[in-house]
Automatic annotation (TrEMBL):
This is tRNA N6-adenosine threonylcarbamoyltransferase. It is an enzyme of class 2 (transferase). Belongs to the KAE1 / TsaD family. It catalyses: L-threonylcarbamoyladenylate + adenosine(37) in tRNA = N(6)-L-threonylcarbamoyladenosine(37) in tRNA + AMP + H(+). The keyword Transferase applies. It comes from Blautia acetigignens.
Length: 336
């Protein structure tokens, strides 16, 4: 059978990325141009700067992805692109580029939900993984616990009521002076700290056992810092990072294990930027081993934003018959 080659484009936030994916599971190239250095100056992503940088980089990133894969635009079967959720100006750059290539080369256009992309990152390195499975999605903008019923088909069991897990990491990082991007810096510093040094609240919600809330732990960290400053006490930042991280990771793991038990799921996956967190990966591995569940997680490079995951999701949408027209628009708050 002829191979299906998809060029995928991702520009929803601060990474300009392109990838060529063969038959949905083989990554022929994965090029990511990160804008982190640029946004670090401002302590977070500046949407206008992100859009401009995407425009500057996108053609070069696509050329590199095609070259690395050893293919030309004439070899492609479809163009996949993230059309939401994300920053509207940033998304528009990728969507306009994808439409232009698809139109010029008379190729099908497949719009992809960014979060469906994150979940699909799990298929890259796990050829045996197929739906149904339970997936914890933890990124900068989302925290969802879902059953992946089929490719691109989700039943949402729980979600965050306030901050996303990644957002909590970023805010705590800023409060202890680690700067942007916060998650990886908290992860690194926490390795030197004692996770049991400070007890932070765990954000349990009585009415829906699968929902999350991280604003309480974030406020508790800020109060802890303020109190210490008022008393003139030195803060052990490594202990604080480790203790905060533990309270978040414990809740993520507990809710996931509860859902697995209640819904009789024995295949558990994690996805999104926070899925690259060392403590979360270790805690999930242990929890799944203890219960005899199979645990899947993408390599860290496929957890944070990339176009390979968009190419994988685009492939499964493509074979289902999903096609978008030239009126495809960026949808900043696209629902799962
Ligand atoms: O999935 P992602 O790259 O972008 C979104 O779709 O949001 O996730 C980015 C988020 C940021 O909040 C970042 O701080 C967090 O993921 N993150 C981490 C780690 N690496 C990235 N959080 C904790 N530990 C990490 N190692
Ligand atoms: Zn993302």
């Amino acid at each position: 059978m002829k191979d299906t080659l998809i060029l995928a484009i991702e520009s929803s936030c601060d990474e300009t990325a392109a990838s060529v994916v063969k038959n949905g599971r083989t990554i022929l190239s994965n090029v990511i141009s990160s804008q982190i250095a640029l946004h670090t100056l401002y302590g977070g992503v500046v949407p206008e700067i992100a859009s401009r940088k995407h425009i500057e980089k996108i053609n070069q990133v696509i050329k590199e992805a095609l070259k690395e894969a050893g293919v030309t635009l004439d070899d492609l079967d479809a163009i996949g692109v993230t059309y939401g959720p994300g920053l509207v100006g940033a998304l528009l750059v990728g969507v306009a580029e994808a439409k232009a290539i698809a139109y010029a080369k008379k190729l099908p256009l497949v719009g992809v939900h960014h979060i469906e992309g994150h979940v699909s990152a799990n298929y890259i390195e796990h050829p045996d993984l197929e739906p149904p499975f339970l997936c914890l999605i933890v990124s900068g903008g989302h925290t969802h616990l879902v059953i992946v019923k089929d490719y691109g088909e989700f039943e949402i069991l729980g979600r965050t009521r306030d901050d996303a897990a990644g957002e909590a990491f970023d805010k705590v990082a800023r409060a202890i002076g680690l700067g942007y991007p916060g998650g990886p810096k908290v992860d690194k510093l926490a390795r030197e700290g004692n996770p049991d040094a400070i007890v932070f609240p765990k954000g349990k919600l009585g009415d829906c056992p699968y929902d999350f809330s991280f604003s309480g732990v974030k406020s508790a960290v800020l109060n802890y810092i303020n109190n210490a400053q008022m008393k003139g006490e030195e803060i052990n930042r490594a202990d604080l990072a480790a203790s905060f991280q533990k309270s978040v990771v414990d809740v993520l793991v507990e809710h996931t294990m509860l859902a697995a038990k209640d819904y009789h799921m024995d295949k558990i996956a994690i996805a999104g930027g926070v899925a690259s967190n060392g403590a979360l990966r270790e805690a999930m591995t242990r929890a799944c081993e203890k219960r005899g569940y199979k645990f899947y997680r993408p390599s860290p490079i496929f957890c944070t934003d990339n176009a390979a995951m968009i190419g994988v999701a685009a492939y499964y949408e493509y074979i289902k018959g999903t096609r978008h027209g030239w009126d495809l628009n960026a949808v900043p708050n696209l629902k799962l």
